[in-house]
Specification:
The complex is a heterodimer of chains A (186) and B (211).
Chain A lengths: L2 H8 L3 E6 L6 E3 L2 E3 L8 E4 H9 L3 E4 L6 H13 L11 H12 L6 H28 L12 H23 L14
Antiparallel strand pairs in A: 1-4, 1-5, 2-3
Chain B lengths: L21 H6 L3 E6 L23 E5 H7 L7 E3 L7 H9 L6 H4 L3 H8 L7 H25 L6 H4 L4 H21 L10 H5 L5 H4 L2
Antiparallel strand pairs in B: 1-2, 1-3
Classes of the chains: A mainly alpha (186), B mainly alpha (211).
């Protein structure tokens, strides 16, 4: 999976905006949006929010978790715990990037938030690598990936799958006669 | 996304081989030390060192893996295959002690592939070989992973020079993951680029196209 595809999925997340125009309810396949009234907050998907923002038709209200104090708390917790802690949003990395890139004027302390999210990301990726290593070295057969987000899994997916494939084949060497004379067709 | 003009077939790794994998084709040319167990009549011209008509029983020579596999039969004792040095007891101890320090490229470069292929030939050491291969892979995994996931925008030749071909392939897949993520983070993923396929086309002259 490409990171831009993950980003595409993240754009379906809802975010609150304050429009400065008025429009009736609009009916889309994914659900009804609106009605839009100037000054009244309304929930829309991120893709629409960014589009409206680029045309200067709205102000984006940052999600609750996108706040320096809350993120600092999460960062400390993430550093303290050995296991993965719950993240505020399954698309925290993508949303931070999208919202900060397009609407940094609506989000207070944008730079600090960017650094904090990057810190959280780095901590989690380091943990992910550690757990992948112990997964391989203990020759486990399955692992539970609680609280991992799609983007995090995505960065290590191809490497981990290929390694597990190799390990499986090397391990099946241990059992004599298991795959002798077996051919794969191409 | 990476588009290549052909889909490369991955190596078979285990005891099976992938017929179309380039790595496996190179692997089956590795030479193995063997000892003949019967006379090979009228094949003496293959052995340059003597001018006898036949290859006598008990002579030692090196044959490529594909020929060994073809000639080897458990019941008929045509030839016996000796283990290459790296799979013998002495080196196995080294691998079990610390697999990280060994230069597998020099030892192999198809250490895992050839090791798995050696299991085709009956030998009391087979279970030990298989175990050592697995342990070596596991022991070196962390280093392969860390270097492939952290080396961004730097020369990777130092990192990969001691890796086996199999580990190199893993290293590359780790790098693709890292690069695509970094590209996305820098905002380059949203830029449209020409496909590799198109870039590889040569310019055609009108005379080539016309019949």
């Amino acid at each position: 999976m490409d990171p831009s595809e993950v980003e595409f999925l993240a754009e379906k997340e809802m975010v609150k905006i304050i429009p400065n125009f008025s429009l009736d309810k609009i009916y889309l396949i994914g659900g009804d949006l609106g009605p839009f009234n100037p000054g009244l907050p309304v929930d829309v998907p991120v893709w629409l929010a960014l589009n409206l923002k680029q045309r200067q038709k709205c102000r984006i209200v940052p999600p609750e978790w996108m706040d320096v104090e809350k993120l600092e708390e999460i960062r400390e917790l993430e550093r303290k715990e050995d296991a993965f802690t719950a993240v505020p949003s399954p698309y925290y990395m993508e949303l931070t990037k999208l919202l900060l890139n397009h609407a940094s004027d609506n989000i207070p302390k944008a730079d600090e938030i960017r650094t904090l999210v990057k810190d959280i990301w780095d901590t989690r990726i380091a943990k992910l690598r550690c757990s992948a290593d112990s997964f391989i070295s203990q020759q486990e057969a399955h692992a539970q990936l609680d609280n991992l987000t799609l983007m995090e899994i995505n960065t290590i997916r191809s490497f981990l799958l290929d390694s597990l494939n190799c390990m499986y084949k090397l391990r099946s060497n241990l059992l004599p006669g298991s795959n002798k004379g077996q051919f794969t067709d191409y | 996304m990476d588009t290549q003009s052909y889909v490369s077939v991955p190596p078979g790794v285990g005891m099976g081989e992938n017929f179309l994998s380039l790595d496996d084709i190179l692997l089956c040319h590795e030479r193995l030390p063997i000892r003949t167990e019967c006379i090979f009549p009228r094949l003496g011209f293959l052995e340059k060192s003597s001018d006898m008509q036949d290859i006598p029983e008990g002579s030692k020579m090196e044959l490529p893996l594909w020929l060994c596999k073809g000639l080897y039969e458990r019941k008929k004792r045509v030839l016996s295959v000796e283990l290459p040095k790296v799979y013998r007891e002495g080196w196995r101890t080294v691998f079990n002690a610390d697999p990280k320090v060994v230069d597998l490229h020099k030892m192999g470069p198809y250490y895992y592939g050839l090791g798995s292929q050696m299991l085709h030939f009956e030998s009391p050491e087979n279970p030990d070989i298989a175990q050592t291969l697995l342990q070596t892979f596991i022991g070196r995994f962390r280093r392969t992973m860390d270097s492939s996931q952290n080396a961004y925008n730097e020369d990777t030749s130092v990192l990969v020079e001691r890796l086996d071909c199999l580990e190199k392939a893993l290293f590359r897949s780790g790098q693709t993951g890292l690069h695509s993520f970094q590209n996305w983070e820098k905002g380059q993923a949203s830029q449209l680029t020409a496909s590799n396929l198109v870039l590889n086309y040569r310019k055609r002259k009108i005379t080539d196209v016309l019949p």
